[in-house]
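Entries read chain and fold; for instance:
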Amino acid sequence: MKDLGSLSYFLGLEVISTDDGIYLSQAKYASDLFAGAGITDSRTESTLLEPNVRFTPINGTVLDNPTLYRQLVGELIYLTVTRPDIAYLVHVLSQFLSAPRTIYYAVVLCILRYIKGTLFHGLYFSAHSSLSLRAYSDADWAGDPTDRRSTTCYCLFLGYSLISWRAKKQTFTARSSTEAKYRALADTTA
């Protein structure tokens, strides 16, 4: 066995260690993703999506070749390892892998342009933060227009460092916003 020194790059994750903490990023992975998607222009997006946009399986026309869409969504799923800011929208787009449509592909390109503008965003784990564990959860109520199911979102912090997050459609139909939020809280603590 040979000592290769401190970790700097592993499975698409860039690791920068300092005395103050560890920074994780996927900037190189994202740059390779732009090339694969054919995004060569310098245009970027400052936000992911307009608020209150709803996606349904009948928006737009079906893509002739869904392979690129599926590949890009899969790569975006891996990118959520260090980019919790895109987790919810990638979760929504992954629901349309069986019959992707043109409007969803346009949203994928919008996400890629947003990532291009925020390329070096990532996770920072401070060496000096407290060891207090905090959790936040939320849920919409009947947010999916097709099956009326709610979506749970949560994030866990250790000190000031984000250590876990999730966006997931609930497996049942909540009868009230209180029930949806209660289930989100239960999922957070499970």
DSSP finds five helices and seven strands in the chain. The CA atoms of residues 58 and 101 lie 8 Å apart.
